[in-house]
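Attaching the record inline, Q. Sequence:
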Amino acid sequence: MKKLLIFIMSLLAFGFVNASPVQFNVKRYGATGKGKRLESTAIQKAIDACHKSGGGTVVVPAGTYLSATIQLKDNVTLHLEKDALILGTTDYKAYSNPDPFTEGLGIEVGRALLVAVDAKNIGITGEGVIDGQGKELKERHVKEDPRPEKDRWGCRPFLVRIVRCDGVNVDGVTLKYAGAWTSHYFQCRNLTIKNVTIRSFGVAHNDGIDIDGCQHVRISDCDIVSGDDALCFKTTSSKMACRDIEVSNMRLKTNQAGIKMGTESMAPFEDINISNCYIYDTRNGGIKLFSVDGAKLRNVVISDIVMDEVRTPMLFRLGARLTVFRKHEDTRQPVGSFENVVIRNVNAVASDDAQLKPPSGILITGIPGHYITGLSLENIHIKLLGTGTAEDAACKVPEAIDQYPEVKTFGPKIPAYGVWARHVRGLKLKNVTFELKNPDERPEIICEDADVEIYK
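Structure, as predicted:
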């Protein structure tokens, strides 16, 4: 007997026998999975028990679990098995807001269905679905709240909000139909998002993935169809940069931008690498990089991108809106900077029906006295409608120094069909070509207050 015990202990010591991770099934804590009543209390009990035990996995088996806000805690992974559905209640008043802030249009937001605040080593995994019922929730909200939409929409919940967490793993799940942003990660470190499917549209502000002042981030192999920006980097606080971020192998479809940095842009965006993405059927831009609230945007590389039916493929903007989003903890920043950005190996088909009429390919603009510097565009090919006239070539583009940065801010016409650049230093265009479906009387390239090198 003693020899057998010694043998088993030896196996454990050398890793030949692995103890199974501790699991907490939500049904053991009162959840039914029948979708008839709120089950957030039962799910929270399972999470709390898992946390108090030292950590493990909270298992959500197949079934429908109607829920209000659920909060993840240290060392807890929420695992949704196949055919498991966490369904957000349409009662918008049932959601809590762990970290209120003001978004880019000036509305206080932050309520959410699934949240984590100041937690370590957490996860959301599995083949299941989290569905916020955004359209149904909005319909109920409109009936009960008589205020104008611009004043009330902030009461609607995000689907997932992860706030100031360290060690976050989101893998395999499907996120659907948020009441506002689909997933928001604020000031997190060591964040991994992979194999996530997002289908979130039907109400305004349905961003796909929002990375807000996060560091050491890896995102890969996600498929996003969103009503608002698909993959968006923000800094709503001046206190923590978006830094050390790698993104690859993404499918992005959206009614707004495929890849975006800004518009909330107080802290730096730096050391960011995005590659091998397919952006299609976007309604407001392919790649849009902004610093307008004081951010230093630098050392960014975006490469190997295919765009199909994208309105206005690229917009780069350094501006001076200088908004503060967390008014009780932040102050107005000075004008930021935009430097050392490389966009290479892009093949794009621009939509004929664009915000700019006739369409243009690439817009680049700083403001007087503040230049975009060291921007390199390499191996870019864009197919465009054409049809520009001599009158279009003579149009003037507004400076819009303190305006919300958007393609339409500089429209409705741009005097160049290919590249229009203003307030730029050290711009390099290497093998940047344009293919026109129809003749265009505008120049291919116009540079105003710009230092440009062109290589064919």
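The chain has five helices and 33 strands. The chain has a mean pLDDT of 94.

More tomorrow.
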